[in-house]
Design goal:
Radius of gyration: 23 Å
Strand content: 15-25%
Shape: globular
Distance between the termini: 12 Å
Structural class: alpha/beta
Largest sheet: 12 strands, mixed
């Protein structure tokens, strides 16, 4: 059996001018990055109206058994193209952290991939490096300001800005820098975030254009002065230089699927830490250039979809026309307590116990957000007819259809059943208007409780004493009206990763609240979520290699 990278390397791909033409773009609108990827000039699409139907792909809570959300997204886009629909993908860029840590690649799988797979997973067009450089420039200007006299009276014990690197490196979570005497800076406790968890990444992905990017960068809070007032990037006169570093990166990246469907891949905040969506600019461009746009949100619907809907859609005036919820029989059996070694065996009892996880997400999309949805079952050879029938029956009880997806093995041809159901949902009259999990103007505590109650199925939040003080401080500073970005484990609907399925009667403990004023949301940290992941015992990097001809192996 061929690996993902072997399948991808066997496909030549169409000329980029032909991919652009499928979106009605002239070749002059492209800024080539080699032969098989390019950036798109905003002037080529910014005056076009939004015409596309927006399809959001989300999933159940992830398990070691795998779900295949990106694979499903790519295969669905190819299937829509096969059905004669002008289609564009809008996806996130992979972070080097997971690529070298656990995933080994994040460009789809099997015969539903975006190419060039190696480039997309490794550096791509350099966007993440630009974001890291802009973040660290601000950190350097902050420390230099303190070194040069501290005219803003910054409290060195109340600095909230961290440096970043796009790598899983737990050693950098907490550091002391500025050692070695006054010439080397002011000694202080510091730390690193992974680039995809940085506020610059969030700002980059929520900005609508270059000037909006600069304004958002300027609003970012980096520290507090001795009076407790926020100090911003604008106070440090940093946003202009940061924007200069990000000017070219802000243009969306155009590539293609194995079957030649255009794909805009741009930005990539984590969903368990940040808001988990590709850039507003890329999604907006796709909606102006194609009739159908397939996008995805990170992890399960409790994280990625919630933030896509409550943060991104609110900020960018977006509204999905249909939602796809990806699941596998294997993953649902895992949620039902089946050991990983036995997932290939029929187990209706475990499936019955695990199905509430899927049904919780379906209920959230249907009844909290009032969006039409379909369940896509990513097919495995070990799935039995009895298991598939049980899954379909439970979803029908909620008025939702199930479509078998075989895109990993068959590409777009294996996704046509799913695509036809998506087209039906997009064309069907809506009975209820799209709603958020919480409305504008509600309190911070109300928003937190609404997310836990209406999305997770829990009984609300508990704030630690420290978080209570932070909540009052944010309210006093005028940030109380901002949306909430929950930083929570992806493995459970709760903040306890061991509570699988659809737990009930739980409360989520918020241990830290911080404002991301540039991004326009408040981050609520729960559980043991960290903004700098670590590598596993056997990192995927150990299996990645390159031969004398430059051919890469080991990317899944």
């Amino acid at each position: 059996m061929k690996t993902d990278i072997e399948i991808a390397q066997a496909v030549q791909g169409l000329p980029m001018a032909e991919i652009a033409a499928r979106l009605g773009l002239e070749e002059a609108a492209l800024i080539p990055y080699g032969r098989n990827k390019a950036k798109v000039e905003p002037a080529a699409y910014k005056d076009k109206p939004r015409k596309g139907k927006l399809i959001l792909v989300t999933a159940i809570n992830p398990t070691p058994a795998g779900e295949g959300k990106t694979t499903t997204s790519v295969g669905l886009a190819d299937a829509l193209s096969r059905l004669g629909k002008q289609t564009c993908l809008a996806l996130r860029e992979p972070s080097l952290g997971p690529v070298f840590g656990v995933k080994g690649g994040a460009a789809g799988g099997g015969y539903a991939q975006v190419i060039p797979m190696e480039d997309i997973n490794l550096h791509f067009t350099g966007d993440f490096h630009a974001i890291g450089a802009a973040n660290n420039l601000l950190a350097a200007m902050l420390d230099n300001h303190i070194q040069q006299g501290n005219a803003l009276d910054i409290d060195t014990k109340n600095i909230v800005w961290k440096r970043c690197v796009d790598m899983n490196d737990r050693q950098l979570r907490s550091v002391i820098d500025g050692l070695g005497g006054r010439v080397n800076g002011v000694p202080r406790e510091d730390g690193f975030d992974i680039t995809v968890a940085s506020e610059v990444m969030a700002v980059f992905c929520l900005a609508t254009d270059l000037m909006d990017l600069k304004a958002r960068l300027g609003r970012m809070v980096v520290a507090y002065d001795r009076k407790g007032e926020p100090v911003t990037a604008h106070d440090l006169k940093a946003e202009g230089a940061m924007t200069a570093l990000l000017k070219d990166a802000l243009k969306p990246n155009l590539v293609q699927t194995l079957e030649g469907t255009p794909a805009l891949i741009h930005g990539g905040p984590f969903a368990n830490i940040a808001h988990g969506c590709n850039s507003v600019i890329a999604t907006d461009a796709a909606l102006r250039l194609a009739d159908y746009v397939v996008t995805e949100a990170g992890f399960g619907a409790d994280l990625g979809a919630e933030k896509f809907l409550d943060i991104k859609c609110r900020a960018a005036s977006l509204e999905p026309d249909a939602v796809v919820i990806v699941a596998t029989v294997r993953a649902l059996k895992h949620h039902g307590g089946c050991p990983k070694a036995d997932l290939g065996k029929e187990d209706l009892t475990a499936l019955e116990k695990g199905l509430p996880n899927l049904l919780r997400h379906v209920d959230t999309i249907k009844n909290t957000y009032h969006l039409p949805c379909v369940v896509a079952v990513n097919a495995f050879p070990t799935d039995t007819p009895a298991e598939l029938d049980l899954l379909s029956a439970r979803c029908r009880e909620l008025g939702v259809n199930v479509a078998l997806s075989e895109v990993w093995a068959k590409g777009g041809a294996g996704g046509e059943t799913l695509a036809k159901e998506v087209l039906r949902l997009c064309a069907e009259p809506r009975l209820d208007p799209f709603t958020y999990a919480y409305e504008d103007g509600t309190s911070l505590i109300y928003k937190l409780n609404a997310i836990v109650g209406r999305v997770y199925g829990g009984d609300g939040v508990v704030l630690t004493p420290a978080a209570q003080k932070q909540a009052q401080k944010l309210l006093d500073l005028g940030f109380g009206d901002l949306p909430v970005c929950m930083a929570k484990t992806q493995y459970s609907l709760s903040d306890d990763p061991t509570l699988l399925g659809a737990p009930q009667g739980f409360r989520v403990t918020v241990r830290n609240l911080k404002v991301c004023a540039g991004a326009g949301f408040i981050v609520a940290l729960t559980g043991d979520i960290m903004t700098m992941p670590g590598l596993p015992k056997v990192p995927a990097a150990e299996n990645i290699d390159v031969d004398e001809n430059g051919k890469i192996t080991g990317l899944f």
